Amino acid sequence: TMRAPDLPLLEAIKTAQRLPRAIEAAGLRVVPLPLHPSLLAYAVVMPRTACAVEVWLAGRAMTSGAAGYVRSLEAELDREPADVIVADFAFVAAGLVAERRGVPFVSFYHSGLPFPVGGEHPFTNGAALSRAVDARVARVRKALGMPPARPGLLDRPCSPDLNLLATAPALEGRALEYGPTTRCVGPCVDGRVEDDASTFPFDRLRPEASKV
Known about the structure:
This protein is an alpha/beta fold.
């Protein structure tokens, strides 16, 4: 994880500030990683963009400094080996480390939105974004001496072991057929209340209607 500066800028930063404290409260050790300078620029620019531009910048941000993060994480694993690596899908370095070390990898997604349906990407220029991310990841893999990977990193759940989606199938409004390694676990938000899913009238949601 990365420690966020104490600046009341965005809700995302406030969440990032709470996260290390929550990890430590659970009895786990927080290991700060060196922040790649380009991410500071993306953090300033991205909140002021929208739609295709924001998504394009996010694709670049998720691969920035990945080789350095891989080396930092591997140095940490040399000090304290891990049985499993769990990371947000946008943190590309985690999956690379898991692959290099032969450690099971759990990838976490906010929803099923990143994946194409029927060959159609959900984002404007989604196919171009997918190719751009593949090209950037290919350069990282080459710098680390790793073999080329199958293209389409953004077009499928990226972990061969387990992918967790913070959503419910009824809220997606689209078929979630990602194979046996993908599970929907419900929304991941502060103040989440666990409840029997049967208490919500999912049967009353119209498949053709938009959901917010």
